[in-house]
Structures are given as C-alpha cells and as structure tokens.
Amino acid sequence: MPEFPTITHVALTVSDLSRSVPWYEALFGSKPVLDEDTGPFHHVVWLVGGTLVGLHQFPDPSSTEAFDERRVGLDHLAIACADRKELAAWEKRLGELGIANGGIVDASYGSGLSFRDPDNIALELFAPPA
What we know:
The chain has helices at residues 17-28, 84-97, and strands at 9-13, 34-37, 42-48, 51-57, 77-80, 101-107, 110-116, 122-127. 20% of the residues lie in helices and 36% in strands. The chain has 2 helices and 8 strands, in the order E-H-E-E-E-E-H-E-E-E. The model has no long low-confidence stretch (mean pLDDT 96). By secondary structure, it is an alpha/beta fold. It is globular and about 45 Å long. The longest helix is centred in the C-terminal third of the chain and has 14 residues, at 84-97.
C-alpha cells in the first residue's frame, strides 16, 4: 500500500468574508493567493507552509450558529511550530494582534496554544515535545 499523501488544502466555512479575510490576513501576515466567487460559494485562499488554507462563504448557509467543535465535523485546525520557542513567539504575536488565547499548555505529546477566529472556529499552534 502506498504511503498516505500530504494534505494539500483545508477549507473553513465562515459567515462573513469581509470580517474573516482581514483577521486571517493579519494572522498569516500575507495577502491571499486567490479570491474568487465561483457562484455556489466565494472563497479566499492563502498558501501557508505548503498547504492551501481557504475560507468559504456560501450565499445560502444551512445554519447561522457559531462553530462548535462538539458537533460532528471539524474539531480544530492545528498549525505546526518547530519548537516551544517558536510557539512562545506566536503567543506574543497573538497578543500583539489582540487575539485572545488560552496560553501555552504543555503535555507529554507536545505544547499547544489555542485560540478562535471570528466565527469561533478553534485553531491551535502546536509544537512537538522537546
């Protein structure tokens, strides 16, 4: 059996691109590589460390409820940091951006820094154990 391939992209559905795009632009520190209205949805996409991260907004959302990781589907999106030092730098950067977070939490399997986007989507910066 072949090795499982690399994940190429992830798409997050948001309620308001005009609110989410500037937030993610500040977080990623870059402009999107794609901004396209396909008809069925509008998407804006960034290239983040070799993975495409897209935001989708649908004209006919099936729900207006905020994201809740306890519903079936996505729990959170984790983004890799090389080590705890880089994770600490991101904790400082989130503070500079005014993004509330849970502080660095250390565990035997690594260290995480959890925060949420404007739609309450759970995001995490994660570093492997030292």
